[in-house]
Amino acid sequence: MNYKLWLAKRAAEIGVSMVGERVRPPALHTGADVPRNGVDLNEEWLTEVLCREHPGARVVSFSTPGGSVGTSTRAALRVTYNEVGQAAGLPTDLYTKTTAQFSQRLMLGGANVLHGETQFFLTFRPNVKMEAPKGYWGGVDEKSWRSMILMEDIAATKGATFIDATTPLTRGQVEDVLLNMAAYHGVWWEAPQLGILKTPKDHYNNLANLLDFEGRCAVGMERAKAVIPKRLYGQADRLWLGTHKGLEIATDVLPRTLLHGDSHVGQTYITGDGRMGLTDWQATLQGGWAYDFAYFVGSACEPDDRRAWEKDLLALYLEALDEAGGKAPSFDEAWLRYRQTLFYPYSAWAFTIGRAFYQPKMQPEDVCLAIIKRLATAIDDVDGFEALGI
């Protein structure tokens, strides 16, 4: 079926489902039941999903003290247990992410990222010693694209604050994120469990089916003209070719491991004791390590800092990757792969600032410009075109 016709059919089905949910909210009794938001819950359901491994433990009350709306609908959740639950140390400070709105369901469902955080938090996260939130439950209702992830509220449990992407990180902060990255890459290096995840090419194809990716990137170049190096400006077609070649390398050439999938600097946070972590795992993928590495380093470092640090950062990452169980390539090969995989991160942000009037505003303009400047300058500095032979 034509993708647009299929999506129109799904939109109608979702609309009907949401009308039905308002008339008769989904029943919440078992862990198979998916709430419509993070507020309309009940103690029975919370007991089922949070106390299942602790006989006798029960949720006796809960509150939802605040939240926000963006790509998903987010709400803080505070839970009180009976004495058995308290003695077991069950989590009390939680956070929910749901597709409570029609536009959220259509975008995230159409892009096929509804399962990403559930897969990460429940399958992959428990095996890695890293700084990232813990996850406790996740579910998707396939018919309505209703979804929820129930996770740790790191602002409450760790005093975490989220990084403003326009503020450059220190070298130590960049290194800390890369050590986290090496940890999850190493633990899941070429693991058979990765088969449940999409690849970078799959992810791109889902987005390109949903929206005019290439066309909006060309518009984005014009809107970001002031921060793009002169040698790159006007070469939208060539950058687009580099994007495709980089995605092919990350999908078909490099050994596969667990990928964050959207590892830009705005996905990082700092805990109260100074540790750096990664959040927002909805685009979790399987693919080559350089996809995550290039995206993070290219988006996090101001040009002068990156020029001074990038080779040392790569060496640090490769050493940590080996220690975590991965098979690090030689430095020269790794340097080549880094240069080759900077293009998709650039295109993702050119697309974001180049949005059409009917697309949601996913990021503020100042954030887009800061990250585009860093990534475009990196491509120019390391001669990414030469690395790909284009």
From TrEMBL:
Pfam families: APH. Coiled coil: none annotated. It comes from the Bacteria. This is Aminoglycoside phosphotransferase family protein. Residues 114-331 form the Aminoglycoside phosphotransferase domain. Signal peptide: none annotated. The lineage of its organism: Bacteria, Bacillati, Actinomycetota, Actinomycetes, Mycobacteriales. InterPro entries: Aminoglycoside_PTrfase, Kinase-like_dom_sf.
